[in-house]
Amino acid sequence: MWDVRLRVNPGEIVCLVGANGAGKTTLLRAITGVLPPRGEVAFEGRLITGRPTAAIARMGIAHVPEGRQLFPAMSVRDHLELGAAFVPGAWERREKTTEEIFTLFPRLHERQHQLAGTMSGGEQQMLAVARALMARPKLLLVDEPSLGLAPVLVQTLFRTLQEINRHGLTVLLVEQNVRQTLQMAHRGYVIENGRIVLEGTGSELLANEHVKVAYLGL
Amino acid sequence: MSGRQAVQVLALAVVLVAAVAFPFWANRTQPYYLQIAINIISFAILALSWDMLARTGQLSLAHAAFYGLGAYTSALVTTRMGLPIFLGMLLGSLVAVVVAAGLGMLTLRLRGIYFAIGTLAFSETLRVVTNQLRFTGGATGLVVPPLLGGQRVPQYLLILAVLLLAVVVSWMVNRSRWHFAFTAIRTNEAVAGAMGVDVVRFKVLAFMISAFFAGITGAYYAHVFLFISPIEVYSLAVSVGALVAPIFGGLYTTAGPILGAVVLRVGEEILRSTVQRGYPIIYGLILALVILYMPRGLIGVWASVKSGLATGRKETREPAGP
């Protein structure tokens, strides 16, 4: 990774788009401390470089990992409780957060006693987002939620992310689905071969010639 | 639901009363049974404590190491320093806990078979070292003073109390938030970390809890059987036994490892007395069949029977229900 300067302001949806292997996931892992970053990562004005992943999670950065990474033998309800269990403040408010999540994803309410491994891809992705929300994070990192989902499900999911954002949650979304992502995001970054090559508002990037040619096939 | 819970509580109470009353009966009529019961309970504690560590995904072959450390520490401080036996047993389990914390830190990054081999190497090293040291009595072993004046009934009640403590700890682990941490770490450490679970802390903590019970059981063994040697207490049979019972009974549960330990030991006794020759072959065969065809152990069979009954009942009661 080189020349990566990425900033997410409170209340924004920022997206990071790029091709396979461009470094999107690596960048997220550097933020969450799974990989040690060589540069600096700051959150709410404080440097968090080199802190352990669990400590970063407890500060209010929740991560929806690529490929969902659910626990197949655990029920929906257990996933939600796990999401809140180790974040200060979130555990005490878990009942209320669960209610909010069930209004956001009624499907999960219906399936609360079902095992995660037996649900469809779309439901699993909802659960992965819901599990992260249970921590009542300030910043939500979402890694390729559209992976393996039907287009209609992707739309629903993106609408839900927008709704969560309207409730005040800051979102950093990593995607390969460039058009839909840029339409939704306030601002975006384009990453190629480990470098950020473009940045701008969603509509600016959609109008950019390079983006059009390389990612939108126009 | 509350009716069923009442039945469960009642059943537990009956088992408990029977377990407490048992030695008073056995001591008069069948002292040999008392001996077997002590063996079974010790084995159940080892199995349950091994399982508590396994819940974090750490499949250890070092249970004999903590068992042996407990036995040798207690034997040495009571014979060489003249400390009281209870203090010796406590020190034995504390040494096991401290060593477990160290081993836990060292093996943090090992997974699966590599973790198992690392822990096995540790256990074998302890055995070889103890075998060579003059201080520990070398290969000849140590003669150990008897616990509670060698009276079997109080000895039995003491180990029963230790088992109850292990059951309470295991139950609390499975009922509290820790359960989520253990399960998440076992399934995917990276994701557990992203959920705010302090992976290092929980893995080492599980190691320490597990070693505490193995250590105290080892110390108890020394003071009940009055003689220990490296080949006996650091034996691979102890480590393997501690992992076979949970697999047989049902992993990651409180009842499974205990059930597994009881059924295996009782079955072994029955086979030993009925099929004098070659009983280990039959024993091994039964074990292999259970592991092949009952992957969730005895508890898993019970659970599927129960859920089968429950759905059957529901269908007859509310045929049109959603």
If you had to describe this structure to a student in words, what would you say it looks like?
By secondary structure, chain A is an alpha/beta fold. Helix content of chain A is 41%, strand content 17%. Chain A folds into two domains: 1-60 and 138-218, 3-Layer(aba) Sandwich (Rossmann fold); 71-136, no CATH class. The longest helix of chain A has 16 residues, at 151-166. Chain B has 322 residues and is mainly alpha-helical. Chain B has helices spanning 2-29, 31-54, 63-79, 85-106, 112-132, 152-175, 178-187, 189-194, 199-225, 230-233, 236-249, 255-274, 279-293, 297-317; strands at 142-143, 227-228. In chain B, helix 3 crosses helix 11 and helix 11 crosses helix 12 (255-274). Chain B is globular, with a radius of gyration of 21 Å. The A-B interface holds A 32-34, 52-54, 57-58, 62-63, 65, 69, 71-74, 78, 81-83, 85-87, 91, 131, 135 and B 177, 180-181, 183-184, 187-188, 190-191, 193-199.
Which short descriptors sum up this protein?
heterodimer, A: 218 residues, alpha/beta, Rossmann fold, 2 domains, six-stranded mixed sheet, two-stranded antiparallel sheet, 10 helices, 41% helix, 17% strand, B: 322 residues, mainly alpha, ABC transporter involved in vitamin B12 uptake, BtuC, 2 strands, 79% helix, globular, disordered C terminus
CATH superfamily of the largest domain in chain A: P-loop containing nucleotide triphosphate hydrolases
Proportion of helical residues of chain B: over 70%
Query: Major sheet of chain A, described briefly?
Result: 6 strands, mixed
Number of domains of chain B: 1
| CATH-derived topology of chain B | ABC transporter involved in vitamin B12 uptake, BtuC
Q: Mean pLDDT of chain A, nearest integer?
A: 93
Brief overview:
The complex is a heterodimer of chains A (218) and B (322). Chain A has 10 helices and 8 strands.
Q: Strands, helices and their partners?
A:
The complex is a heterodimer of chains A (218) and B (322).
Chain A: E1 13-17, H1 24-32, E2 42-43, E3 46-47, H2 53-58, E4 61-64, H3 76-85, H4 94-104, H5 106-110, H6 121-133, E5 139-143, H7 151-166, E6 170-175, H8 178-184, E7 187-192, E8 195-201, H9 202-207, H10 209-215
Parallel strand pairs in A: 1-6, 1-7, 4-5, 5-6
Antiparallel strand pairs in A: 2-3, 7-8
Helix pairs in contact in A: 3-6
Chain B: H1 2-29, H2 31-54, H3 63-79, H4 85-106, H5 112-132, E1 142-143, H6 152-175, H7 178-187, H8 189-194, H9 199-225, E2 227-228, H10 230-233, H11 236-249, H12 255-274, H13 279-293, H14 297-317
Antiparallel strand pairs in B: 1-2
Helix pairs in contact in B: 1-2, 1-6, 2-6, 2-9, 2-11, 2-12, 3-4, 3-5, 3-9, 3-11, 4-9, 6-9, 11-12, 11-14, 12-13
